[in-house]
Amino acid sequence: MSKTILFGGSGFLGPIILEKYPDIISIGRSPIPSHLKNKHIVLDNLDDFAAIDHIDFDKVIFLIGSSNHHVINTKPSMGIEYNVLPLKKILFYLQKRKIEKFICFSTILLYDVKRMKLPVDETQSINPYVNDYVFSKYLSEELVKFYSDKIPSIIVRFSNIYGPTRLIRPDLVPTLIQKALSLNEVTVWNTKPVRDFLYIADAADAIIKLLDTSYTGVVNLGTGKSVSVARIVDIIEELSGKKIKNLDKPVSGPMNFICDISLVKKLTGWKPRYSIEEGLRETYGAMRQYEK
Fold first, then answer.
1. How far is CA 133 from CA 53, 75, 266, in A?
2. What is the CATH number for 209?
3. If we measure between CA atoms, which residue out of 107, 162, 137 comes closest to residue 281?
4. What per-residue confidence (pLDDT) applies to 166?
5. What tens digit of pLDDT does each residue of 67-121 get?
């Protein structure tokens, strides 16, 4: 019988997957949220896997890592420490196990901004040398390829994932909502960029469906739809009753990005269920409860 384990159950995406799929076993150093019914096994570090040697599992979701590109780009060793070494350790261990599918996570920021055509599919060129964060994700993808003959794997390149969180994250949506809930004056860097925003619950469903496919390789995960930062601001203003000031500062990265999600839809039949309005409403409502 197939059994799935998940590393990183106390982070941003992990608890959502665990809550939706209570049969998945959580593995990690930190405890998972108390309301979850999943079994949790404490693993103090990734240098000793004795705590899971006895578990019969054949699928792995690996969420350990950091997407905080702002910090990684200012600390030269952080990208390696968070996004490369942990992945290397788990893959080295798993090559001795009989694994049907390993799934880990990368970023659409790898695509070459100067050469890409919208919507961006998995065949388009990448440029891993943009910054330390993107390079760390490139190295992680290369590690997965190195072990691919022993560990069938999928690398998910995320678009802009958003959803409720208590964590301090640099992402647009949680930052704006946290500010709207706690500050009188709320600002946004620039409202012109257009991005592909995917609600976290939709991401969780896609990941589980991908685990059950025979596919190996890279998969984009987004909505395939473009949403401007201006639209995000409008919705959060409506939800919060706060006015958000546009600072109109220079933007790094592309002004426009949309994922081509044809591959994930073909492989799984999955499609996102939440509109941007529904997803932001869910996110704002949950984060407002956190503040109480």
1. 32, 10, 30
2. 3.40.50.720
3. 162
4. 86
5. 998 899 999 899 999 999 999 999 999 999 999 999 999 999 999 999 999 999 9
What one-character DSSP code corresponds to residue 109? G
So what's the pLDDT on residue 172?
94
Beta carbons within 8 Å of 85's beta carbon, 6+ residues apart: none
Residue 273: domain span: 4-290
Q: Find the radius of gyration of the CA atoms of the chain.
A: 19
Q: How confident is the model at residue 1 (pLDDT cuts 50, 70, 90)?
A: very low
The pair of three-digit structure tokens given for residue 197, joined into one six-digit string: 């925003």
Cβ neighbours for 45, distance < 8 A, ≥ 6 positions apart: 29
Give the residues across from 219 on adjacent strands: 156
Q: Which residue is it, tokens 């409720």?
A: 164
The total of structural domains in the chain comes to 1
Q: In terms of Cα–Cα distance, which of 286, 189, 290, 169 is closest to 239?
A: 286
Count of alpha carbons within 13 Å of 270, Cβ hemisphere only?
Answer: 27
CA distance 292 to 287: 9
Structure tokens at 274: 């939440």
User: In the chain, at which residue ranges do the beta strands (DSSP E only) sit?
Assistant: 4-7, 25-28, 40-42, 59-62, 101-107, 153-158, 160-162, 186-188, 194-195, 197-199, 217-221, 227-228, 244-246
Q: Residue 176 pLDDT more than 80?
A: yes
Amino acid 272 reads: P
**Tell me, what amino acid is at 175?**
T
CA 264 to chain centre: 15
**What are the residues facing 95 on neighbouring strands?**
none
Q: Taking Cα atoms as reference points, which of 126, 166, 136, 30 lies closest to residue 75?
A: 136
Q: Is the pTM of this model over 0.85?
A: yes
CA 69/CA 54 separation, integer angstroms: 36
Structure tokens at 257: 């990005």
For all residues of the chain together, what is the average pLDDT? 96
